[in-house]
Every structure is written in C-alpha cells, then in structure tokens.
Specification:
9% strand, iron, alpha+beta, 490 residues, 5-stranded mixed beta sheet, single chain, Cytochrome p450
Amino acid sequence: MVPVVVLVLVLSCLLLFSIGRQNSGRRKLPPGPTPFPIIGNLLQIDTKDITKSLTSFSKVYGPVFTLYLGMQPTVVLYGYEAVKEALIDHGEEFSGRGRFPVGEKCGKGLGIAFSNGHTWREIRRFSLMTLRNFGMGKRSIEKRVQEEARCLVEELRKTKGSPCDPTFILGCAPCNVICSIVFQNRFDYKDQNFLNLLEKFSENIEILSSPWMQIYNLFPDILDYVPGSHKRVLKNIDDIKSFILEKIKDHEESLDVNNPRDLIDCFLIKMKQENNKESSEFTNEGLTILASDLFGAGTETMSTTLRYSLLLLMKHPQVTAKVKEEIGHVIGRHRSPCMQDRSQMPYTDAVLHEIQRYIDLLPMNLPHAVTRDIKFRDYIIPKGTTVLTSLTSVLHDPKEFPNPDKFDPGHFLDESGNFKKSNYFMPFSAGKRICAGEGLARMELFLFLTTILQNFNLKPLVDSQDLDTTPVLNGLISVPPSYQLSFIPV
C-alpha cells in the first residue's frame, strides 16, 4: 500500500510541476496549442508526418508559434520571412544547437554537429579551414570526387544492365569521398570493414527518421531504461568511433607535421600546437567525434539525395533527356565532368537545385537554440530555448515556387533559359549553422550525376508514370521508397 501512495504522490507532484512550468513559460512565448501536462502537445502531433502538423499549426497560430515537446517549450518558425529573420538577420542569437538527446549522447558536447559555444566555434573554424585549404597531399577535393565518380561508373558497369537496387552502390561513393578527406585513402567497394561502416550509417539514418526516435527525443531520461532501436543507434555510433580511433592510432605512428595527408593529420598537428593549454577542444575524443560527425553528415545525406535523384530522373524522362543533351554539348563523351562545366549548363544546374528543393531532405532542419534572451516579433524567447525552423515551408513556398509539390526545373530558370537563383533555396539551412560541407555536397551531386548520365541510360522496371516518389520516412531526413533500375551503357 505504501509504495502505491508514494507513487501517486510523486506523479501528482510531477503533474503539478509540469502544469506550473508550462503556465509560467507560456506567458512570454509565442502562442500555440494548449499542452497536456508532462506529454505537452505530443497527442496533437502526427509523429509519422510532423511537417504536416506544423503546417496545420501555422494556419492557426501564424509563422511563429510554440509547441511543448514533453515539458520543454519549442519555438517553431514557419515560412521564409521568419526563418530568414532568425537564422540570417539574428544569426548569432539563433546559432545555438537545440535539444536533440540522441545527438547529445553521441557527441558528448564535442565535434561540430551537436556542440555549442566556444567548442563549436573552434571546431567549425578548423573544419572549414581544412576543407577550404584541402590542397594537402597532391590532389584537390575535386580530383578525389572525380576519381570516385569513375570508380562508381566502373562498379555500375559490373551490373551489365541487369536490374539492381542502387542503394548500396550510391552509398559507397560519398562515403569514400569522406574517407579520402579524413583518412586519405578510399576503400574498395567489397572491403568488409567499409561495408560494415556503411551498414551502420544506413541503419542509423533509418532509425533516426522513424516515429520511435521522435518519441525517444522527447523522453530520453525515461526511455533510456526501455529496450528500443535508440540503443542500436548508440551501439552503432560506438562501433564507428572504434573504427575511427584505430585510424587515428595509425596516423599518430606515421605523422609528419610538415606534410599533413588528411584531416586527421591536421587535427593531430593542432593537438600538438595546443599541448600546453589547460583546456583544449583538440583531443583524441574530440577528433573521433568530429570524424564521426563528418561521416554522419556527408555519407547518408548525399547517398539519399543521389538515390532520390535517380528516381526523379526516371520519373521525368523528358527532363533527363534535356540534361543528357546538355552533357553531350558541353562535356561530350570522352572526358570527365568538372566543376567548371556547371556554369555552362544552366538546365542541369536548375535540375539539381529542383531535386534538392523537391525532396526536402531535412524537413525540420537540425534544432537550433537561442544563445541569449531575445525579443523576436514582440515575443520573448528565453536563452536556451530550442527553435525548430521548417525548411519545408521555405522550399515549398507557393509564392516563390508555383505548384511547389510538382517537380519542375523551371523554378530555377528565367524566361531566357538562364539559371535563376532563389533566396528560398535553403536545403543546407542558413546563417551561422549552415552545413559546413555545403560546397562539397554541391560538387558531389553535380559530378556524380553528370558522370552517371554521361555513361548510362536509366531504365526503370515499371512505366515511369507508375514510379512513386513519396518518402517512406520523413522524421530526421526524407527517405525515398526502395526501387530497382537498370543502368544501360550508352
């Protein structure tokens, strides 16, 4: 009897605390649906399609509103004006990383993806400088991507035009680009360690985009004690870190401070330079987590984009025909595409932009947080409050993109057929937290796709009109449905 009474008292106190906390916080924050105690607005949100729920709330409460995800208030910014005002006009104040429990457990406050404050600024500066100055070794990043594109083509030739699921092969190429930057060396597509690494990245993205992970991120302290796929994510991350740590040990033994070969060497040199500092972000653990972040951000996101790209190109054969015509005119058949070609290929450029706009890879972006109390549109957002920026609402804005749910490269072409930029193009986010690898991602998308289309015709197994492009998951990222195709050599 006594344990039951104690349990009732504890739950009652928790309930009263939740109600009191929500009521006091809501006086200053933007409006939003009334939350339930403890679980907040969970029952009012479709965890299988959160973006749809955000659209519905925006129609009632406007472009700035508050949701309670559990007992924590989260401010949601919906539409270009609100997102731009926060991330660009008030970039410093909105540059924090918001609450994302599974990321925090993996990153431990280190790395580039889920760190904050001084640590984030130092590691981001180092990462950008290393990527920008990547003349280390004897090859530029572009040459590495071109080499990987050729390897990708050779691997696709081995299918001999037979139907195949491209998921695995399209995962190998971007992962190898990151490997060459971080480790210096690429892997053979049949290397077992490489395959294990790919499998863990792929599994994690699928789990992180599932409804279960949305629930876990609301109640991590409780669900940590419950079996579930969140434990698989953490186990996979530990295995990835162990793999990276072995590479770091190899690099330590062969390091030449006067001749850095890759990102690991650059980081180890920085560690030596800061050896006398009392505290430094440049530690072995920091390097392991940074490398893990780069793999996580640069492998599955690009792999998924490439997979979605081929699906859309098959769905719209008239678009593919125009891209192939432009490739033939500008590049021809006998040399590899290079980044200089892009400026002479406005239609292809428009298609690549439209692919990224249409697929809406990161519907809600990674969560931001305000770094200080800020007055935003007559509301007070307290320091540390998590902020969600709806990239869907920007990329699918009907004022900027007529018929936003229709795949149309004309969204990025003017009346003369020249490429037309748009401030609404934010697939990499915007402001201080814009993706550090944006330049690399743009390069990979252009070089991989043009090289594939230069060498193959894409043949779906069903009529192009019957291909379904609706994402099967869209929690963290939008995951396309599985499909097969044949790569027919030209």
